[in-house]
Specification:
The complex is a heterodimer of chains A (379) and B (304). Chain A is mainly alpha-helical. Chain A is built from 14 helices and 4 strands. In chain A, strand 1, helix 3 and strand 2 form a beta-alpha-beta unit. In chain A, helix 7 packs antiparallel against helix 9. Chain A starts with a helix and ends in a 7-residue tail after the last helix. In chain B, the strands form 3 sheets. In chain B, strands 6-7-8-3-9-10 form a 6-stranded mixed beta sheet, sandwiched between helices. In chain B, strand 7, helix 6 and strand 8 form a beta-alpha-beta unit. The chains are: A mainly alpha (379), B alpha/beta (304). Chains A and B meet through helix 1 and helix 8 of A and helix 2 and helix 3 of B.
Amino acid sequence: MRSFVQLYIATVREFVRDISALFWTMAFPIMFIIIFGIIFSGDDSDVSFSVGVVNEDGAASQQLVDSLNQIEAFEVHTGSRDKEIAALKDGDRRAVIVIPAGTGEQIGEYKTQLMRGGGTELPQANLEVYYDPSDTNRSQIVLSIVDKVVSGMNVGVSGITPVLTIDQQKVKIGDEDLSSIDYLLPGILAMSLMQMGLFGTAAPLVSLREKGVLRRMGATPLSRSSMLASQIAFRLTTAFAQTALIVIVGAIFFDVNIQYSNLLQIIGVVLLGSSMFITLGYFLSGLAKTEEAIQGIVSLPNFIFMFLSGIFFPVEMMPDWIRPLVDIIPLTYLGDLLRRVMIDAGSYYSPTRSLIILTGWLVVCGVLALRFFRWESQS
Amino acid sequence: MSAIEVHDLRKIYSGVSAVDGISFDVSNGEVFGLLGPNGAGKTTTVECIEGLRQPDGGEVSVLGHKHTSVRNGIKELIGIQLQTTGLYPLLTVYELLHLFGSFYQKSLPPDDLIKMISLEDKRDTRSKDLSGGQRQRLSLALALVNDPALVFLDEPTTGLDPQSRRQIWGIVKELKQRGKTVMLTTHYMEEAQTLCDRVAVMDAGKIIALDSPQGLISQNFEETAIEFEDRNSADMTTLEKLPGVKRASRDGSLVTLYTLDTPHTMEGLLDAARNGQLHFDDLRVRSATLEDVFLKLTGRRIRD
């Protein structure tokens, strides 16, 4: 036990004094969070759309202008038709809503006829909405909000009780409550757990083996199993230190919504994911003969996994031909699972499938590690 | 009881006998040397004895234990210095000694060991920042962490400058004074001659001679060696016919004449030089060394 503790302390010392391992496992993910956090924080706090409202109908339609003004997502500017449309063309407005003269009058006429039992032809009022079709996403949001206001008014004016209403239940779906940094943070954690297995496990192991450190300790009564146990225990604690660090930075600086009630699930997924990547590291360390070679060997999965795993872009966005690759990458599933348990977002894959595939990788890497891991340099 | 008993030890690497059926005993309190050129099988031999390699044949007993049965039990009792120092590069001298101490049931305080190897001023220096000689001393201290009765040193001074080499020799002599048994390998004749009570000369996996350094020399040589650099490649048979010469050998331009009658041989040599038969430089007379023994036994010199 004393040797286990001392070896653990020695490994911690070697780790914190090794700039490269420390950078990839700790500084690199934090850099990612800060960069992404800064890029996306601007968009998130300011989700209002600048909308021009041109009231050509005067006081009769003031009520309509007021209800548009009350929409939180709109930053309403009023002005003349020419001025507002010019602003739209300059990109200063997302849309311009024009209330033509006589709109209020038409609505009044409509009400009167409706109360009389209605005629064959009810009068209609038209709002004109100008928008930029090239900016589809935002225009669609603006148009649907306007549409909603208009149907609300229609219901009010006609006095009909709607047959179908929306009972608003608070269920978070996708991006409504979640900002981009919420989406990215679990992915960054998954990435850093992977890099701990690659840069924090495989590379130092090759170095210790080639320098003869493992062999030298093998010449003492210390058993190989204690050596392994101590190394693995150290790396698992590092994985949790990374998790804590990333969560703290995300929560304090970027207000990420972590589901702390899922703590046990989060611990379980981090444990599974880090074990899998540590085992991968043990396997890969056996493939390299030199410290230079291992850097190349771990860089390959590092970049492939990082960019094809959907930790930065949703899997749906990837082209079809690349999907079979995406679907076998363990980081895909670790990111997906972490997103599910950490921020309560919907996951793309079923959790069962993710757990099975990650466990499968763990077992395969374990078998390969047993086959390829070496205690002694071959040269 | 002997500290080490080796009987008919064999180790084969891909069809080649690295160690080819060697036998010897090492007594308690003895400094025992394995002397031979690189590739002679010295390291393989000690690693088989230490239990780091599995022999392909023969018997090894260390401190009364047949080590194949109690591998880890033996490691508790012995100290090992490997040829590669194998130190965690980013740990300090003190941290390494403390760490290795934790691997044994009993261990010496790190500061005592640091004092023994005179590294007090490097106590908190990381091992990668030590000089070669300092690192080698640290590696020696790591072999002594459990205060073992038997210490193995594999080429403890290879690649070191003369001053560092003498520092290591001083530590080994101190170990001997404290009654430790030391088994070391070396390809330095001078080292074997200075440190060892007995030397086994090894070549191509076999022990070709085993005795005290003085015994090896007097067994093989009653002669004195006369050495010089011969610039004209004189005929060896002429040299052998000089008065008193028993044997002559040449290694490049270096000629060694072994003689029982130094004054006569020198006379003949100087005559030959006067007559223009011979041109020599750097003439010196010395008594025979282990180097001469190795040369006589194998026909080759040991080189660094």
